[in-house]
Amino acid sequence: MRASFRALLAALFSIGLLLTAGTGPAQADEVTPETAKPVRFISYNVCGAKCPLPVGTGTEAEKTAARAAWVSGLVAEVDTWDSDLVMLQELCYGQWKLIRDALAPAQRAGKASYDTVWGAALPTASGCDQWDPADRRFGLAIFSKGQGSVVPNTRTVTFLPEVEGLPTEDRVLLCARTALDGRTARACNTHIDPHDATTALQVPKVAQLVEAGRLDGEPVVLAGDFNQVPEHEDMGTLYNHGTGSTGLFQEVDENDASQFTQNPDCSETAVRCRSGEDTATKVCSAGTPSDAKIDYLFLSYEWFKTVQGDALPCAAGSSLSDHHLLRGAAAWEK
């Protein structure tokens, strides 16, 4: 199903670049572009500052080639999945510009172009030198299919609460209203701090903020790296099912029965469960403490049905991201 991307990877091997969203054995519930529901999404923590370019110590020409090859690989995944919304975390500003330009109308002959918004969490991150030493901003981005598909003047960047005295990195929620498959939707993207005390503040705040879209009568898509497993009590403020849940969302990979054993509250006969395929694993990064699902695509339950999710395999030895790329799809409820 990913023949075009496999061909691209073969070319990337020649310059020593392996993409996180690489080839590998199919997952049990793998959803193909041919069988997926029509409204489609991607969430991906791209590790733009901490994961070095494999040829980062070489010549400038090699660095330029590596950057271009990585962007081409990501664009190939966007096209293969025909994604309506693409949400990226841990993204350097220089990295975002390259993706923005690659998905702009001028570069998209015969293919859909993408509009985009960017949100900075940090004014500078030293690892972003590899993408643009003149601008080291670090944050999040949303890409929306269609030229001009982001509704003007609707972008918001909200800084999330922190625990006083606890060393943390600034975290934000980036939102914008977008045209989603012919309807206006609220798209939001975030990256939650990994400390439990901070997670307990930030996840409920995100749930509160994205509720605004629902109250306005709009479909809401919330993506991000939440640095927390689905069954954790903090995530109950997002899920609309499961023990202790008070939220308003379904998650794209919640109906993968092969993963229900992650959550002791779920039975083998359950229809859905707060669980899903691992998106952070030692295959992606030897420094990962334990394999877990920490990346999500949440959809407002009253607008979407028949959700589908799939975490793409990592290529062993990849050094450009420490996460799996998460794909999701759904149909409209009404």
Number of strands: 12
**Strand order of the main beta sheet, please?**
3-4-2-1-12-11
Averaged pLDDT, please? 88
Class by alpha and beta content: alpha+beta
H/E element order = HEHEHEEEEEHEEEEE
The radius of gyration is: 19 Å
Note the beta-strand portion: 25-35%
The shape is globular
Number of helices: 4
Q: How many angstroms does the end-to-end distance come to?
A: 30 Å
Key features of this structure:
334 residues; alpha+beta; six-stranded mixed sheet; 25% strand; disordered N terminus
What does this structure look like?
The chain is α+β, with helices and mostly antiparallel strands and 334 residues long. The chain has four helices and twelve strands. It has helices at 3-13, 60-81, 93-102, 196-215, and strands at residues 39-45, 85-92, 114-122, 138-145, 156-159, 172-180, 183-191, 220-225, 249-251, 295-300, 304-311, 326-332. Strands 3-4-2-1-12-11 form a six-stranded mixed beta sheet. Helix 2 (60-81) packs across helix 3.
Topology:
Elements: H1 3-13, E1 39-45, H2 60-81, E2 85-92, H3 93-102, E3 114-122, E4 138-145, E5 156-159, E6 172-180, E7 183-191, H4 196-215, E8 220-225, E9 249-251, E10 295-300, E11 304-311, E12 326-332
Parallel strand pairs: 1-2, 7-8
Antiparallel strand pairs: 1-12, 2-4, 3-4, 5-6, 6-7, 8-10, 9-10, 11-12
Helix pairs in contact: 1-2, 2-3
